[in-house]
Amino acid sequence: MKLTPDDTILFTIAGFGLNATIVFTWIVMALLTAASILITRNLRPDVPPSRWRTVLEAIVLTIQGQINEISAQPDRRLLYFSGTLFLFIIVSNMLAIVPGWHSPTASLSTTAGLALAVLVAVPLFGIGSRGIGGYLHSYMEPNIIMLPFNIIGEVSRGISLAIRLYGNVMSGAVIAAILLGVAPFFFPVVMDMLGLLTGVIQAYIFAILATVYISSATAEPEPESRPAKEQT
């Protein structure tokens, strides 16, 4: 039983095997790109919005609302980054109900790549908001002794993101395989519904955690409180 799509080779081009992770990742990217182009191709004030455009606007406004609740300084670029993560993960997970579909998020290489993107985005957003000096100084707060611990904490965030997403997707695949062997007629429907719910939750959690990490890097440090002078 192959649980990870990395083990499934679909095509071989010039001696290079393309596994299911690579192929289905590009399929998700193509679907998202094509849907965006088709929905927004008539994006003009004089054209009434279609149903799909209304759905897309509702998704964007919902994501923006979540970012505004988390970040003290909402950045439009954060909407693009976190929104892309959310849409990629949720589409990858929800298409798992399609027969023969191999979710790219069931591969540790994909989840590690997404976590690495967050690790790179955190300092980029932090430097862009606070300057390179202000951002690097945050690693030495409250004092320079905390420098190595803050660096370890930053790296552990990315590792936890990758393991969290990969573990949840893989656990669902393992449970589904076991239940299919026990009762192949009843449990597939239940597991499909549970898989859809889990996929939505995991996409939301991953995007929210990425937003929280980036927001903490872009937030301005609070001014140190000074003790009041003692009255004589």
Structure at a glance:
By secondary structure, this protein is mainly alpha-helical. It has helices at 20-40, 51-70, 76-94, 108-137, 147-182, 187-218, and strands at residues 9-13, 16-19.
Topology readout:
Blueprint: E1 9-13, E2 16-19, H1 20-40, H2 51-70, H3 76-94, H4 108-137, H5 147-182, H6 187-218
Antiparallel strand pairs: 1-2
Provide an overview of this structure.
- With 232 residues, this protein is mainly alpha-helical.
- 68% of the residues lie in helices and 4% in strands.
- The chain has 6 helices and 2 strands.
- A two-stranded antiparallel ribbon has the order 1-2.
- α1 (20-40) packs across α3 and α4 (108-137) runs parallel beside α6 (187-218).
- The model is unreliable at 225-232 (pLDDT under 50).
Throw out a few tags for this protein.
232 residues; mainly alpha; 2 strands; 68% helix
Structural class: mainly alpha
Low-confidence stretches: 225-232
How many beta-strand runs? 2
Strands ordered across the widest β-sheet: 1-2
Helix and strand sequence: EEHHHHHH
